[in-house]
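tool_call predict_complex ligand=aspartic acid
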Amino acid sequence: MEIVVQKFGGTSVRDKNVRNLAIQHVKRAVEDEKKVVVVVSAMGRYPDPYATDSLLHLIGEQSTSLSPKEKDMLLSCGETISAVVFSNELLQQDIHSMAITGAQAGIVTTSEFTNAQIKEVNTKNLQSLLYQHQVVVVAGFQGRTDQFETTTIGRGGSDTSATALAAALKAEYVDIFSDVNGIMTADPRMVTTARKLEKVSYTEVCNLAYQGAKVIHPRAVEIAMQANIPIRVRSTLTTEEGTLITTTEMGNEHNEVRDQFVTGIAYVDHLTQIKVEAPNEPEQLHVKVFKAMADAGISVDFINISPSGVTYTILDQYEKKAMQVLEELGLDPVLNKNCAKISLVGAGMSGLPGVTSKIVQTLTKHHIPIFQSADSHRTIWVLVKSEQLETAINALHVAFQLDATKK
Ligand code: ADP
Ligand code: ASP
Ligand code: MG
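tool_result ok
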C-alpha cells in the first residue's frame, strides 16, 4: 500500500465549491493508485457556523468558566463535522471513503486539554480501514487521552495531525493544502511582493513557523523532519506543486549557489514589552519576575537580562494581569504596549557579517525605532511598534532582495 496524506485547512473546506476542488486533488491521488488519508480542519473561518472560532464564540471564549476538558468536547466538533461532510461528498463522487475521529485514527495525547501533545499513534484501525477504502477522512486537531477523553492539540493543530499520521503510517509524502501557493518569503497579506519559495529546509520552515508564519504549524514540521517525510505546501485552488520542504537547504545541493542569506521574514504582533529595573538586587529580581510570570500562566519571550534589570515581551492580552503580578511584588514595571516582533530567518546568514547593520540602516532610513533586538545562528529579531510593522517588513523585504522582481 502506498499511502499519502493530504491535509485541507479551514478555507479549503469552507463551502461545496472549494471542497469540490479539494476532492479533485484526492481523486488524482486515488487515480495514481495511492491510498489517501485526508485530514481536515473545521470548515471556514469565524463567523462560518462550524469554524473553531465560531464554536469558541458560542461559549464566550474569555468569560467562560467551562473546564478545558469541556471546551475540548465542543472544539473537537468542528473537525468531526468537517470530516463527515467531506467524506459524504467523496462518496457522492464515487470515491470509496469513510470518516473517522482523531481517536478512531489512533491519536493518543497527553491530558493537557486544549493544548495536548500527541504521545503516540496506533495505526492498526486506520491501516485496516485503508485496506477496505480508497480514502479515509480523519478529523484533524483532535485526539484522546489514555482514559478515552477527547482532547484538542492547540490552534493550527490539524497540520500536526497530518504529519503525525504520515510518520506513523510511513507515508510517501504529506500535502498541506491551504489558501496560498506555498511558503512565501513573507506573509502575502502583509507583503504583496512576497515570493513563493520552491524548496526550503525543514529547519528554516520550522524557524519561520515558530516566529509567527502561520502557514504551517512548527510541530508538524518537526515531526515530518524526524520521520524524513517530504511536505508540500500548496494551494487547493490550483494544481501547482507549491513549496517542497525537505532536508536540503538551498545552496547545499550540488551547484546551487545561495544568492540570499535571508530566506523569509515572519512576525508576531500584539506584544507588550516590559522593563523592570532593580539595581540593588539584580539576581533576586529576575528569579522573582520569571517565577511570578510562570505562576500566573503568562508566557514570556524576547528576554534580556542585564545587571540592572530585565526586559521581556508578553502578549498584549496579558498586560493587565502581568502589571498586577509585578506590582504585588513591589516592583515598578515600565510597559511599552502595541509592539510587534519581526524575525528574519535564513540558514545562509550564519556567520555573515553586516546583516544586523543592514537591518538597522533600513529601519533607521524609514524612521522606525527598534526597541529591542537579538540574534542567533539563523534568526535575527527586532521589536518595533505595531503601527510601523507593515512598513518595516516591506522595507526589510526589499532591502534583503526577497521581493518578487528579484530571483
Ligand atoms: P489553513 O486554514 O489552511 O491551515 P492558515 O490560515 O493556518 O491556513 O495558513 C495560511 C495563511 O498563512 C495564509 O493565508 C497567509 O496569510 C499566512 N502566512 C503567514 N506567513 C506566511 C508565509 N511566509 N507564506 C505563506 N503564507 C503565510
Ligand atoms: N480548526 C483548528 C484551528 O482553527 C485547527 C486547525 O485548523 O488546524 O485552530
Ligand atoms: Mg493552519
